[in-house]
Structure formats: structure tokens, C-alpha cells
Write the C-alpha cells for this entry.
Amino acid sequence: MAFTATKDLPLAATTTGSWPRPAWYTDSLWGRPLDAAMLDPNYREQFSDALAIVVSEQERAGLDIVTCGDFFLDADLAGRSWHHYPLQRWLGLAHDELQPETTRSDLLKYPAGTLLNEIYTSWRWPIVVGKIEHNPRNPLEYAKIFRMTQARTRKPVKFGTVSAQVMALFLDTHTSEYRLEDDKRQMIWDMATAINRELRELVASGCTVIQIEEPTIHFMACYHPEATDTLNFLTDALNHELDGLESAEIWIHTCWGNPMMQRVFNKTSYAKALEYYLERVNCDVLTLEMKDRGMAEIELLGNWRGRTRKKFAIGVVSHRTLNAETPDEVAADIRKALQYIDIQNLLITSDCGFGRQGANRMVAFYKSAAAAQGANIIRREHGLPETYVPCADPRLVQDKVPTEFEHSGATATAVKRPSVLDTPYTTFADSHARSSPSDVARFSHIFRDRR
């Protein structure tokens, strides 16, 4: 594996992946190949424009690494498409049916009258009717989605995909290809093979940052730490999924659920999983849900200081709250993390994605902007170069009361300010961040006279 985007960028800020859709982006693929959908002028325009907007918003928020917002996924109930997108396309799967209660994981069973019960009982899944494998007539087309996104930004694009392991939770086998008694191991392995094929094409297309989302190692280690044989298999299967990606920076995203912003698990602990992820999984970066968990267990990462080359991307903004964190709040959490992680090994992210019927775009934007600005506060304290955050530039505030006017008779002429393109950010901000009381008084005087 290789550090690409974060090699010389401590505290690089990013978001997990999914982003709230623009209200006008109403089309979805619903199982169609992307190539076929792009022949529809309406879908082509919506998808292409949405990609341009999502990277633009993330750049304006000051993120160092951007994502495609998962805008290729369907806008369905509680973000089912995050799991469902590959399952709609692979061979060996058919239909869409409700999952029987007897085969649903005990970890995903909730009483009637709760939102999580409605979500998990409403989701429909294909059934397994044969060997699961890549479908050449309906590929996942990750490489094409990456190219379309990277063409719209100069910042590195982190491309994320669901792990094969978590999809197995929702599948029922109806074929001799997969024996019930093997605990879905062959099924997981075959899906890992299919994902790996797409990831190899992704690397070949030039993608330098790839994120595998939600392998189930931390779930199993938390709830069944004694199941070492299963944990060993899951580790091997994850490495199989990552095989041949040595030239890319590989992120492993872990959190504790995110359908419609909901908290899926009451018990959350990384304590038993860290050894697997940090010593045995072939990755470069491990992301950890921290903000929504009150930075619980951050001290455990101190045990790995000097023992691992891997970096930690900690969640400093929550995907489950609508209150946008402040830059100072983010900076305080980063300072806490730095008690246990060296600054060159610390990256900044959200706990999970903001899409999947989650936060609205403005909340997601300002949470991301807080992460970027909080990282800059700490960089400043450590004498490190800062990342420009356009939305925090006083010269670019959207709505401002004009204050510097020359008044002569009935005509008011605005005094020319230095151009945002000509003036260094810090110099301009220092001298023009606030208007003087006399400026405001003169502006009020002009309008009084006009009345």
C-alpha cells in the first residue's frame, strides 16, 4: 500500500463519502447500467451537474480530499442503495424480496413502532440463486464514476464502496452454490472477488485513494470476540478484497451504522478490533467513529503510537446531529486526539456520510467547513501550512452591507476594494475583516438622504 494524498499533509480533512443530493437531482439508476442511463439526456445532465456541485461544495468547505457524494447510488429509503447497488448488478442474484425475520441478523432486529424496525423490515433484497460474480453486461463502473468526478476537481478524489462482508448480512441463499453451514463464507469470498475486480480497474484508471466501507470485523469483535475463527476469516476476506491495490492509498471506514442518521447499535467498542485492523489488514488509513461516541476509547490509539505506520482518520463531526459543530469544537477534539496520535498520523473526517436520507446540504456543508477550519487552527498552532477555506474568507462572504462609499450629490460611487485574486488572504482578512463604525454611519447617511 502507499500514502498518496496524505503523504505530506498532516490533518488532511475529508468527509466519509455520501453527501445530500440537490433537490433537483431526482433521477436514479434503479438497476440500469450507468452507460445506458447516460444515454438519457435528463439523467446525463442531472448526474453530471450533481458531480460538479458536490466537489465544488466540498472544495468551498476547505476539504483536502473530496468525494463523489455517492451520487451514483439510488435515492431510496434510508440509503439502502449503499448495499444494494452491487447486488442489483452481479450475476447469481435475482428478484427483490423482504428478508425473513428468521434469517435477519439478531443485531438488526428492532421492535415494532421504532424507526429502525420500519427501515429494516421495509428494505427488500435479492435472493441468491447461483454463484455471485461480476456481470460484464452490468458492471459497477466505479472507474467511470471516478473519472467523471476527478475531471471536475483538482483535489484528490477518495472513492468509496461498501465491503462485501456487510452485504452478506442481508442475503438468503437458495442455491447449492453456498452451503448454509459455512456461515456465508464462500458467499463473502465471491463478493470480495467481484468487488476487487472493480477496484483494480479503479486503480488502473488513476484513482489514488480508495475506501472500503464497513467490513464487519469491528462488529464481530465487539459482540463476539471469542469467535476468532470467524474474525480470522473476515480479515483474510478483506485482504482478498484489497489484493492488487498496492499503488493506491487504502482507507478502511468503520462506524456503527447510518440508515437515515440512526444509531444502529447500543454497544460500540473498537477495543477487540484494533489488532485485526492495524496489524493484519493491508490498509493505510483506519477511520473511526469518534464524535458521536464522545471520543470514547481515543486513548486506546496511544497503544499503537510508534507501533504502526498506519494513519487514523477520526470523526470530528457527527452525521447524526443537525447542530453544526464549530471550528473551535473540532480543534478541541483534535487536541485530545493528539495526546495519543502523532500529528503526521492523524487525519480528519466525519463519523459517517451525510447522505442516505441524512442531513440537509447546508448542515453537511458547515459541518465539513468546521472540520477543515478546525484542522487549520491546529496546523497554525504547530506551524504547519494551512489549507485555504473559501467559505471562511471574509472577502467572499455572500451577503455584505456595502460600507465604503463616496457621496457626491445624489450619486454614490463605491470605492474599489482590492481584488480577491490580487490580495493574499491573510493580509486582506487582517485589514478588512470588520467595517469601521464611521463606514456604517456614512452608508446609513446616504440612504437617509435618498429618502
Q: What stands out?
A: The two ends are 69 Å apart (CA to CA). Confidence is low (pLDDT under 50) at residues 423-444. The longest strand covers residues 124-133.
